[in-house]
Specification:
Layout lengths: L1 H21 L11 E4 L31 E11 L2 E10 L2 E11 L4 E6 L6 E5 L7 E4 L10 E13 L2 E10 L2 E8 L3 E2 L20
Antiparallel strand pairs: 1-2, 2-3, 3-4, 4-5, 5-6, 7-8, 8-9, 9-10, 10-11
């Protein structure tokens, strides 16, 4: 009888562990997705926000050092038979078109396509395991070097939405970790590949 209890406990433990391992927190959903960046606490006089973003953002994008900024997705759009969410950057209450995001939840990857490019690329890959590497391309005027970064470890971090996996990347040319949070993004900026990272304190939303 004791063996049966032991086997039952082991089976339950393995089942729970397997379920935990399969949990994935998507970054995008069907509702509004929003990321906010509190870079200063002073109010600004700003024009009213237009109903839609008619202008395109200038990319690469400087790291909005003097205003509270946010990025959010709006309507879906189809490009090359793929469905993307339109990504808007808003600063001083004036929005501009940043680009397009899509997520493959089965593969645990998020793809980005800027408004000025013809091809998408992997922005986040949460299927990676410690020891795997990923190439991160940063604007030349930022603090982080463009390089191969190795996933050193995966731990958990508590955010307003709850506990989420945090992926810690390191490179040979940059000592501090580059952190990717599942369901949120980078600690520097959502689209770190198109944004200067020198004045960003991190995502406070989502």
């Amino acid at each position: 009888m004791k063996k049966c209890y032991t086997l039952l406990f082991l089976f339950s433990f393995l089942t729970v562990s397997l379920l935990k391992a399969q949990t994935y927190y998507p970054m995008l959903d069907s509702a509004l997705n929003e990321w906010t960046y509190a870079t200063q606490m002073y109010g600004v006089i700003a024009p009213p926000s237009p109903s839609d973003a008619r202008s395109a953002c200038t990319l690469p994008f400087f790291a909005f050092p003097f205003s509270d900024a946010r990025e959010y997705t709006t309507t879906d759009t189809v490009i090359d038979s793929l469905t993307y969410k339109t990504l808007i950057h808003e600063e001083y209450l004036t929005p501009c078109l940043f680009g397009f995001l899509r997520e493959d939840t089965a593969a645990r990857k998020i793809y980005f396509r800027s408004h000025q490019d013809t091809a998408e690329y992997i922005l986040y890959d949460f299927s990676l395991q410690p020891g795997d590497s990923m190439y991160f391309r940063f604007p030349s005027f930022g603090n982080l070097p463009t390089d191969w970064y190795v996933l050193d470890s995966i731990s958990t971090i508590t955010i307003s939405a709850g506990i989420r996996p945090a992926f810690y990347f390191y490179s040979n040319t940059f000592a501090a970790p580059l952190i990717m949070i599942e369901g949120v993004g980078s600690q520097f900026a959502l689209v770190y590949t198109e944004t200067s990272n020198q004045n960003i304190f991190g995502p406070f939303g989502n």
